[in-house]
Structures are given as C-alpha cells and as structure tokens.
Amino acid sequence: MSDTFAPGDKIVHPAHGAGIIGAIEQPDILDEFNRYYVIELTAQDMRVLVPVRTAEEIGLRAVMTKKETKAVFKLLKSDAEELPDDFKKRQTLIAKRLKEGDIDSLTGVVRDMAVRAIIKTYSPTEARLYEQARSMLSGEMALSLDIEVEEALAQIDTVLEHHQPEPEPEVVEDKA
User: Which of 14, 97, 150, 175 has the smallest C-beta neighbourhood within 10 Å, fewest atoms?
Assistant: First the structure.
C-alpha cells in the first residue's frame, strides 16, 4: 500500500487545520501494524497523529495551491450568505460547514460570520467557532503562500473590510 502523503507535505486535517507532515511513524503500541502521519499544525502548537490507512476517509487533503488562494480572496469579497436567526440552527450549520473540510466551506464560514458580526454580537460558542474558522483558514493560507500565520490573518481581515458599511456622510446644517 503506497502512502498518499510523505514527510514534508503540506496538508489540511478537516477538524484541526493545516500542517506539515513531519514523519510517518509506526509506534510499538497495541496496534503494531498501524502507521501514522505525524502532523505539525501551523496555526497552533499541536501535533496530530492520523492513521495512514484512514487518512482519505477522514478527509486529509493537500493544502490549496497559490492559484487557489485567489479564489479564496474572491469568495471572501463576495456577498455573504445569511445565517439563520435561530441560535441552534445557526450553530449547527456553522459546525457542519466546518466539518466538510473543503476550502470553499471554510472560507464561506469566515466570510458569513464576519459579515454577521458587523450587525450582531456572537455568543461565546459562535465566537469560538469563528476563531477556529479564521485560524484554520489562515493556517492553510500561510502554508500555501509561504508566509506567517499572522500575515495571512492580516490579509484575510483586510479583504473582509470590504464588507464594512460605508460611514454616513456628515450633514452640516446651514445656520442662515
């Protein structure tokens, strides 16, 4: 059985975000025939072990290409999809979209939640989901563009400023 990924490959775990495969290990534990991808995550100081044999069904995928980042920026600028007003429905939808693991769903969550934040406040759970989505997106963009995570976050935030409402012009009354 050939491995889909090799050490040094830039990948995305749908639940944890982007990282680099540091090694493929076969630990001497109970399941002695299982090999694991050792993934060093980009946006957080964490290692994730993923069984090689289940990587595809988990949804492990290669990081987007530099060319694909242009589509991400375009999607971030596009009109947001309105999220449900009902808290439980909204939270369920956001969590479902995050678990899909594809870049379009992740980008859509970041955009839609950023736009919603302009007019409404988040619950603590939603704030956590939004930060998780931003972290995952910035981690993948950082690996794709070979930049730091903080720089990727700044680029995402700059693009999202497009959604900020224009300030109302100041009206000056004549005192005549």
Answer: 175
Q: Render pLDDT for 74-129 as a digit per residue (tens, 0 to 9).
A: 999 999 999 998 989 998 999 899 888 889 999 999 999 999 988 888 888 888 98
Residues 120, 5: Cα–Cα separation, whole Å:
42
The domains of the chain, with CATH numbers, are 10-62 (2.40.10.170), 66-163 (1.20.58.1290)
Determine whether 91 is exposed, middle or buried from the number of CB atoms within 10 Å of its CB (0-12, 13-18, 19+): middle
Three-state secondary structure of 128-173: HHHHHHHHHHHHHHHHHHCCCHHHHHHHHHHHHHHHCCCCCCCCCC
> Whose CA is closest to 139, among 116, 107, 161?
107
Q: How far apart are alpha carbons 66 and 2 in whole angstroms?
A: 27
Residue with tokens 């999607």: 75
DSSP label of 28: S
What is the value of pTM for the model shown?
0.84
Give the pLDDT band of residue 174 (cuts 50, 70, 90): low
- 161: closest CA among 123, 115, 124? 115
Tokens at 176, concatenated = 């005549």
